[in-house]
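User: structure tokens for this one?
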Amino acid sequence: MEKDKKIKLGISIGDLNGIGSEIIIKTFEDNRMLEFCTPVIFASIKTMSFFKKHFKSAINFHGINHTDQIIHGKVNVLNVWKESVSINFGDEDVKIGSYSVKSLEAATKALKEDAIDVLVTAPIHKHNIQSDSFKFPGHTNYLAEKLGGKSLMFMVTPTLKVGLLTDHVPVKDVPNYITSELIHEKINTVYNSLIKDFRISKPRIAVLGINPHAGDNGVIGEEDDNVLRPTLEQIKSKGKMVYGPYSADSFFGSANYKNFDAIIASYHDQGLIPFKTIAFGHGVNYTAGLNKVRTSPDHGTAFEIAGKGEADYGSFKEAVFMALQIFKNREEYEEYSKNPLKKAPKKS
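Assistant:
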């Protein structure tokens, strides 16, 4: 990409009855953001004008119907639908959920076709998006199908990065999902992401156990000894600095996580509860492993405060900057991979 050309940052609107519109507006009503990227909101100018009026914002939108009409220096709104939409903040509404799907599908298509460079997704409501034509538990699974690569939910801040072996699966099914093949895949995804996306040349990765106390030598379950531990030894023997399994209950409280570049948890809450306790409000949900860059804030639709003007936009803003930085890091990685004799800049 030309150095003076702004990165085109696509934004899916999320659930219209949630806080997505508010955090988007709060982020981009600061004109200085347009120095870093060119935002393209996939929604409709009618809908965004309603939100502008509701939140008494001075933001200016530039309505477009096609991605070839994107103008740098403007907050572009691509019309995915034309009709007026009745917004009822805080309501769980399947019809409203269908608009978040329309926005996501249009934004993903644009990303796949390189009409935009990166994607930041505002929060959706997982129940409201379900239909006969859309049966995905969330963004990650949908993007994994539509884009190339192996997806992994990677919760990140500059100093804490947590990946998951399993994400949106019932706790009772977790041990059945965790196979040697899955462990290899997820660790490779995290390892490669740390190198390409975050410019960490020799990543150190910790893996948390499946059972309490990592099984206590088989006393509390055999999965750690029979599956997880031998697989980690295989991976370590190939030169990767991978350690564990660690007992999850004390790993974060003891600050042991600070000794590693990333931590991989066995299941959703094991990783996300400590992450959100430590980093809530400035963490970013990054979908690692795809051939495109997608980030989102570390929170949900927050129906309880939607429309009240109380939403904290810090995590969404961090998601924007994270997407831009990862995009640049990937470009640099590709450039220096093609010319290994050219010295890569040091990680800031």
